[in-house]
Amino acid sequence: MPGSIRGEVGDLFATAVRRKKSTLLNCPSCGSLQVAQVLGDNGGISYVCTTCGHSWS
């Protein structure tokens, strides 16, 4: 058992930071992070940049 709560949660914070960075989506057209996930016509997942309007799947 760690002597301090900081020793216990330190690893959790580092993992959360890595996970958040890995899930960010950038628009391949303009590089913006303002991306929305939408449901496509055939049930697939698509993405739309709310900055420039570019869409992709």
Automatic annotation (TrEMBL):
The protein's name: IS1 family transposase
